[in-house]
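Researcher: Let's try something more involved. This one mixes different molecule types, so please make sure each is placed in the same coordinate frame as the others.
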Amino acid sequence: MKPVARKGAEQWNLRLYVAGQTPKCISAFANLKKLCEERLGGNYSIEIIDLLKKPQLASGDQILAIPTLVRRLPPPLKKIIGDLSDTERVLVGLDLVPKGPGGAKS
Amino acid sequence: MVTLPKAATGITGLDEITGGGLPRGRATLVCGAAGSGKTILATEFLVRGASELDEHGVFMTFEESIEDLTADVASLGFDLTALIAQKKIVIDYVRVNRHEIEETGEYDLEGLFIRLDHAIKSVKAKRVVLDTIEALFAGFSNLGILRVELTRLFRWLKDRGVTAVITGERGEGTLTRHGLEEYVSDAVILLDHRVDDQVSTRRLRIVKYRGSSHGSDEYPFLIGRNGLSVLPITSLGLQHEASLDRVSTGLEALDAMLGGKGFYRGSSILISGPAGTGKSSLAAHFVDAACRRGERGVYFLFEESPGQCIRNMRSIGIDLAPWIKNGLLHVRAARPALLGLEQHLVAMHREIEEVGPAVVVVDPINDLTSAGAANAVKATLLRLVDHLKTRHITALFSSLTSGDAHEQTTDTNISSLMDTWILLRGFEKNGQRHRGLYVLKSRGMPHSDDICPYRITGHGVQLHPRSPRTLRGGAR
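Model: All components are placed in one shared frame. Result:
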């Protein structure tokens, strides 16, 4: 199991793949922004890639589902798909809480 | 009646049985078990389209990396790297791994559409292959979303007007494991790879072709050095020109029995008889004569090694060694059962393509029977005969008949494929073994009705015609 919380000012590098301004993409960004503020303080950066404008970038990170959030840093690379409305699963996906029942809140 | 527009695949035989190719602007499902040749068919459809028919293509691979795919099909003579460099084909490797992905709410597969769209635009593609889209079922857990997106995908492909090949793995009691046939409804091709009596045979069947007639049989197909070839049983092979040119049998007396001039060039000849009646000897005379004329020959041996054959023929005064040495004669020995009928035919085709012979000997065809079921053998031979005829190659086949069986039953019932049929028989008289030869049929020429006695001597086969001028009149 991974540690429950990360210590120190670890830099988070996140990339959110969207396809235009669809409701799912807009809510994914809003959910992500909120979560980062609450959990990561100021130590994060979010890069938004609109595949309608840059379709050639989809294959690099093996993007199929939209929206997809990719955690580039810290390693290892993680992929989270969907509008990020299921906060619990987002936290699991980002390794901010351990997987499994009862590990939801810190 | 409006005929459905079709996109030629360029795959040998497949366009014949589909009446011109796959439904243009629609999707065709190609299904079969692992190793049945789905990816090869799909690749060839793209490669032929890009290199011969000026229709560029997109290959979206879900299972193999670009490197693996390129290496795998290189052995079939497909140079994907070159076609990619020429911007005629683009490959996108889509890797899906459920363990890497956390699902957190609503999503769709727009990313897949964007990639496909980008790929299509980048080479102005008219053809698309998805091999195999079923991988998505392993990658995403939300079946509801997946089904909606697949429906959307196939409609999208249709709207683009691209001709698509979708592959799918065969399921238990269903065409595909995940029911892709529900989405792709225009045409379905089923590939099958069976092993009967330890011999592998590949077969192809068109399960469905909406709005078009099609052959409904199971067609054997081969995967050879030039890709796939489907063997339509009712072949186009009847279009070859019939030559009036004649070639010697290698024996003057036998030429005399065949209207005085020997076989027709490009015809097929069957020599059948029990063991020890000199079938191989007659075959050796035939190739020897061809080489003397400076023509090339290929001799397929199924029972002996080349060394054995040369030694035996030398003992009756026919020396084939010089012809082998100067490159006119190519002797290939193999046991068909070892390779499988399918592989065997491929090997023979290859040899014939490489040598470009004027004459071919297959000695004996019985060994092909051990390599497959009778029907498959007949289909194989038919294909071979057609192939040889279109190239004006005169072919001589020997067939061993068992001593007590009626001479006219050849195991494979292939006599109808043959233009000339020479029967050899042995009988005992006054404590001696005698041999007799007669021409059972020879299409398009007057021929002798005699049973001509002959002996096998140190100077070859010697016929002793009793009435050399008795000919059966009238060409059929």
